[in-house]
Write a structure and sequence with these properties.
The protein is mainly alpha-helical and 128 residues long. It is built from 4 helices and 2 strands, in the order ααααββ. Strand 1 and strand 2 form a beta hairpin. Helix 1 packs antiparallel against helix 2 and helix 3 packs across helix 4.
Length: 128
């Protein structure tokens, strides 16, 4: 995606499956990547590592957002977690935020109840 990232959109998109797939690609000796969008990527290891790091930083931002409001709705978390993304892209970013929350729920770090997400594992969460 030439420096951008793809949208992980539940229910079809699964953040853990995406991260696992990227990790598996790092195990393969790949000379180049030919993505569906953009130019051929000549340094695939660096790009894959960048994508994994980006998603893990975003996941930490999700957890840190609970330092401000806990529990919170997706729409309350969105402007905090995606404060570095143009607001016009927030509807799309909301889908990836949802994917992060689903992953964190599977990791037993957050849970959803009636449209509110709650972080009950605040270890490593900064109080913004």
């Amino acid at each position: 995606m030439q420096g951008s990232t793809v949208v992980i959109s539940p229910p079809d998109g699964d953040m853990q499956a995406y991260l696992d797939s990227l990790a598996k690609l790092l195990e393969i000796d790949i000379a180049a990547l030919a993505p569906g969008h953009g130019h051929v990527i000549a340094d695939p290891r660096a790009e894959i590592s960048r994508l994994i790091a980006h998603r893990l930083r975003r996941e930490q931002k999700v957890l840190d957002a609970f330092g401000r409001k806990n529990p919170a709705t997706l729409d309350e978390l969105l402007p905090v977690v995606y404060d570095d993304v143009a607001q016009k892209l927030h509807p799309v970013a909301r889908r990836s935020l949802h994917a992060h929350l689903i992953k964190l729920a599977r990791d037993a770090r957050v849970r959803e109840n009636g449209g509110f997400w709650e972080c009950f594992d605040l270890q490593g969460v900064s109080r913004l």
